[in-house]
Amino acid sequence: MHSNQYRIVLSLLVWFIFGELNALTSFTNENQVETAEKNLPAFGNYLNKDLPYTDQEVKKTEKILSELQENIDKIRTLLKLSDWYEASFNNPETLEKAFNYAEDALRLSRNLHSDIYAGKCYLQFSMLYQLRNNDPMIETSAKKAIALLAKTNQIDDLGESWVMIWSAKMRTHAPIEERLDPIFKAAVLFEKSGNNKRSGDCYREISELYFSISDFNHSSNFLKKAISFYKASHLKESDIYPISSRLNIIYEAEKRNRDIIKLKNKTLIQQSKLKNEVFLRNSMIIFMILLLIILGLLYKSYRFKKKTNKILETQQNEINKKNHALQNLVTEKEWLLREIHHRVKNNLHMVVGLLASQIEFLKNEEAVQAINNSQNRIHAMSLIHQKLYQSENLSIIDMPSYIFELTEYLKDSFEIKNSIRFILDIDSFTLPLSHSIPIGLIFNEAVTNAIKYAFPNNEKGKINISLNKNDNGNYTLVIHDNGIGLPPDFDPYNNPSLGIKLMRGLSADIHGKFLIANANGTKITLEFSLVENNPD
């Protein structure tokens, strides 16, 4: 019973203190812009250190203004007139006069190339736009003033320009970081110039900004800093007292904030303890239930596993027997396939031998040549079968060794010795049987034609052979000799030569792109990919 009463009283106290603090913070935020406009922008005439004009002096100066020389003194006069009309602003006409005099001063400053007074003019414009409630132009004019005054030693005016940036941010309710940045820069500049009064003004506004976000520690520190600058500027105690009394408000707010945090923490701790007790009790109950369920499942799993182990053991024995039989079958198939390739190679060699025997009975040179070509073609195919039964993999061909052996065979067949030099550039890769035989036959035809026709009268020459894999996954076979080249009337698309037709037909079988052209000799190019052939 006492515990419930304590909780009710504690909740009411937290609500009362926290509600009062929120109301204070909300009131501060709503009135911050108004306070800022009343404080910083109205700190006095900073453009001219001279005493302001009286009404009679203004009228007198306006009469002789056109007679003044175009120099710095005239700029000062124009700015004093603009400042006077700004200070006496009570209708749009006087404000318009202030703008006109500021524009005349800016024009003359530009003519005299004076960054100092051009910056002062833009600073004056920034204040005038504030009277017109033109927030974007306040910031734009102040930025122009900063860009010019940063090149000069006018530190106070540069600080005032940052004050106007801050004023524009306050009027547009910009985020707190965007409001703090310009006012901090202004404070630093005023400290640098020794302007203690303005430094105090800036730090007082910084304190208010931190107060608006309930950062009472920073708010208190910066207000103390502002008071120290006010005292250094010999400000009257009567003027400093209201600012000092503001410290008491901050202290009270900070104390209330700490009390609220303590009460909240105490409440949270009590709630956490209660939740932990409930959670612990429920956890124990759930743990015991889960433990019983797990024990039951484990026992059931043990019984089931014992039963299934016997079944799996029987099945595993059957699988092992089948795997052994399959392994024997695969071994037999590999042996059989290797034997087939061996016999195909032997049969092809037998055909080559028969063709060689037939040559002895032929007297027609063309027939002899045709049989020789056929022998080379048959050898190109038999070499593939030889490599297949000699390799571990019975379906792919190592292309570098195949091309090299086929080249050596052709060199020996034509007995060219050293008259023709072969230059090979073969990438290391393998091709399936479906591509190896067409590539070998095309290679045989191209190299045979180069040996027979490219170098008449046993002239010396060279044949460049390359088979490379491109970055896009395609393959390119190039056979290029430096011989006499193709006849002028040669038509690769309408040629009766069996070799040309054979190369074009084999290229089409593997969906390759076949080209033959003159290029300082004859150049045959075949580009293909490993796309499976269509069945139809």
UniProtKB/TrEMBL annotation:
Keywords: ATP-binding, Kinase, Membrane, Nucleotide-binding, Phosphoprotein, Transferase, Transmembrane, Transmembrane helix. InterPro entries: HATPase_C_sf, HATPase_dom, His_kinase_dom, Sig_transdc_His_kin_sub2_dim/P, TPR-like_helical_dom_sf. It catalyses: ATP + protein L-histidine = ADP + protein N-phospho-L-histidine. The keyword tRNA processing does not apply. This is histidine kinase. SUPFAM superfamilies: ATPase domain of HSP90 chaperone/DNA topoisomerase II/histidine kinase (SSF55874). Residues 339-532 form the Histidine kinase domain. Its EC number is 2.7.13.3. GO terms for molecular function: ATP binding; protein histidine kinase activity. The chain crosses the membrane at residues 279-299. Signal peptide: none annotated.
